[in-house]
Amino acid sequence: MIVESGSGAVQWDLKLNSRAESPGPATLSTADHRSAFLIWGEYQVAGNETRSRAPLQKLYLFHPSYTNVLLELRNSTDQIIAFNATLFERSRHACYVLLRGPQPNEEPGSVSLMKRKLKEDVSESRVIWLSQVAVDSEQYVRDRLYRMRFHSRV
After folding, report:
1. What one-character-per-residue DSSP string does 80-109 give?
2. Which parts of the chain fold into alpha helices (H)?
3. Contact 55, 40 (CB under 8 A)
4. Which of 96, 57, 60, 53 lies closest to 79, judged by CA?
5. CA–CA separation, 77 vs 50, rounded Å?
6. Residues in CB range of 45: below 8 A, 6 or more apart
7. Which of 13, 23, 41, 122 has CB atoms 3.0–4.6 Å from 83's, for a disulfide?
8. What is the DSSP secondary structure assignment for residue 17, as one 8-state letter?
9. For 42-88, what is each residue's pLDDT tens digit?
10. CB neighbour class for 61 (10 Å; exposed up to 12, middle 13-18, buried from 19)
11. What percent of the chain has pLDDT over 70?
């Protein structure tokens, strides 16, 4: 659930299946003084309640400009140890960083650090309509969120 801090109004409310070891959410400040939210989980269409024992956790993007849209980005939580979203100051380039490696209960193994540009994942994302009414085309939504500008909170 995402609640507007000034009014307390619910901006967005959705259940995503999530495992205890899933990475926590991250936020990025946008130039329009809102926040883009990156959330890990598994979205299931209402009425399709069949669950696998270990759901495939994916990364989703939500922005309050589109309260009826969830973007499913390319990554899954397979072997993610740490996750964070950040900006590079000079270019205001938004990205997220994934540290992948063996889980705590596994044998030691390889560790890799990956930086993903948020724009690249937005352009290749899957648009999930949370309501039956789609007011814009999927490509329009992707294009608009692709052009989103970010700013530092500092």
Report:
1. EEEEEEEEETTTTEEEEEEEE---TTS---
2. 118-123, 138-146
3. no
4. 57
5. 20
6. none
7. 23
8. B
9. 887 766 555 555 556 889 999 988 888 899 997 666 778 889 999 87
10. buried
11. 86
DSSP conformation class of 45: -
43: amino acid identity, one letter: Y
Residue 77 to residues 19, 58, 96, 118, 125, Cα–Cα distance (Å): 10, 6, 13, 16, 16
Q: The tokens of 123 are what?
A: 């352009």
> Which residue in this structure is represented by tokens 């000079």?
90
* 95, 85 Cβ separation under 8 angstroms: yes
pLDDT digits (tens, 9 = 90+) for 3-40: 777 888 887 777 888 777 788 899 998 888 888 999 98
CB of 149 closer than 8 Å to CB of 138: no
